[in-house]
Design a protein that fits this description.
By secondary structure, this protein is mostly helical. The protein has two domains: 5-34 and 157-196, no CATH class; 40-135, no CATH class. The protein has helices spanning 5-22, 29-32, 40-56, 59-67, 70-77, 84-97, 117-127, 134-155, 158-161, and strands spanning 171-175, 178-182. The longest helix has 22 residues, at 134-155. The two termini are 28 Å apart.
Length: 197
């Protein structure tokens, strides 16, 4: 929980900050300002997409995986010498990324290494004819974020000035005989992620 709490709470705090500064949040713009950042989930998605392209090159393997129950795919193919390369590839994938699970905070849920069903289901989805390279969606989200950031910089002077009545962005304040540098951004810690926009 100590590991997951910051990233679970931070988006909500950032949203609160956005509302504080700009007086509303139309179309969830606060969340869109943070989307499209590279992260481990994207790295995992790219690796799984690359694996799906290798599978797609083998029509027989594609059909076997697509039609089989995800729970049984790994065990079913582990007895086939013909598909030993795929088993090696999925084992390598699980070795790198298999400590993930289906939930973000429940430590008792099995990881993908222990129960690879979710990883296989994601692979099966990538094998469908309608599947799209996840990087395409990531680039779309990144472009949308950059447009919103540019618009915010042009129209929202508060990003620089800070909230009404706040001290300047950085000032020296005497405290206990010592000179302590303070910033209005300090007061809300994670909430002032906006200073990085």
């Amino acid at each position: 929980m100590e590991v997951t709490l910051p990233y679970v709470v931070a988006p909500s705090m950032f949203h609160d900050l956005y509302v504080d500064l700009f007086g509303g949040d139309q179309d969830l713009e606060a969340y869109k300002l943070t989307q499209g950042r590279d992260n481990t989930s994207l790295v995992v998605g790219r690796a799984l997409w690359a694996l799906s392209r290798k599978v797609k090159a083998d029509p027989e393997l594609t059909m076997l995986i697509s039609e089989a129950d995800a729970t049984h795919v790994k065990r079913m193919l582990s007895h086939s010498e013909k598909h030993s390369e795929f088993i090696a590839d999925i084992e390598e994938f699980l070795g790198k990324y298999g400590m993930r699970s289906d939930t973000v905070i429940e430590m008792s849920d099995p990881s993908w290494v222990e129960e690879p069903k979710t990883a296989i289901e994601l692979l099966k989805n990538y094998l469908s004819d309608s599947a799209v390279d996840p990087d395409i969606h990531w680039r779309e989200m990144t472009n949308e974020r950059e447009k919103l950031v540019s618009a915010s910089r042009r129209t929202n002077h508060k990003l620089v000035a800070g909230p009404a009545g706040a001290a300047p962005a950085s000032e020296s304040v005497p405290e206990g005989g010592k000179e302590v540098r303070r910033s209005w951004r300090d007061r809300r810690s994670v909430r002032y992620l906006v200073s990085g926009i």
